[in-house]
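Suppose you are handed only these lines of text.
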Amino acid sequence: KGYTVAVVGATGAVGQEMLKILEERDFPVAKLKALASARSAGKKVKFKGEEVTVEELRPESFEGVDIALFSAGGDRSRQFAPEAVKRGAVVIDNSSAFRMEPDVPLVVPEVNPEDVEWHKGIIANPNCSTIQMVVVLKPLHDLAKIKRVVVATYQAVSGAGAQAIEELKEQTKAVLEGRPVPPANKIPRQIAFNCVPHIDKFFDDGYTREEHKMINETKKIMHDDSIKVSPTCVRVPVFVGHSEVVNIEFEKPITVEQAREALERAPGVEVVDDFKNHIYPTPIDVAGKDPVLVGRIRRDDTIENGLNLWIVGDNLRKGAALNAVQIAELLVEKGLV
Ligand code: A2P
Ligand code: 11C
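From them, the structure of the protein bound to adenosine-2'-5'-diphosphate can be written out as follows.
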């Protein structure tokens, strides 16, 4: 016995990872439905050694579906998630469409698993840069209460989807071959051999939507509106793996040793930190891995109760597909589906 699971956006960067993770973790899938745009209808995707034919996303696609994992952009979620719920499915939505709705839980299973219990059909999967930060912040918050976080991100192009991966490849080839660089498309400026401090759209306050997500989602997931987050989000020419420089100011004193111990015990986190031997995590180390890696844990003596650290996570896995599948596992475990 198992569940009928739909993956919406099955041909995309995150959708492909969802199929892999459902298979790897042996999620009880009785039937898999791969949904995408009309452009992909009839294409095949691989699941458990078999080929599944991609179908065009339609309201009727959700007849008989128990769990629908959405990763096809906010517009598709807004249009089709209610259709899926109407037909009896529980939706786990990777887009930003519903994350801040008061009646939609926003869940990172290592941080706030209890929130799945009050879902009304839709559960939101947070933004990738938020997820990898909160799995590290939570155990430290429990220890010494966080007042303020200053974070700078170094985000991989795969966060912007499959076409952005191609864009980095094509631009890099052109630069190396001395040809004119193809114009920027998915990333707002040339990304090959460059860094771009612009992810998602700008708001009137000069911050981007990606930065607003980190501020607001952190408070919602941690159930603490008093945590201040000051973010700068930057795209870098990396295929997979978001990195973050994080400065944390605590209410209470906390030593590097206490922080390290708490992080070593924390679920979903692996401490990779031995500067004397030049050991610290990088995106290449984390790509394809489940845990969020943390290193460079050190005191910040310029403030009272300050720590600096470096967090690296696979944005397609823990940042998106893995977190979504973990939410589905929670639903099964708690008998909520
Ligand atoms: P398709 O491959 O048919 O365009 P990514 O984030 O990697 O760009 O992937 C986006 C995913 O969302 C893809 O699977 C894509 O399908 C899907 N998608 C995009 N637009 C639509 C649409 N209008 N209807 C259904 N799926 C869509
Ligand atoms: C990026 N964090 O790296 C984005 C991708 O709100 O789910 C995910 C956007 C979102 O571009």
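What can we learn from it? The first strand starts at residue 3 and ends at 8. The chain has a mean pLDDT of 98.
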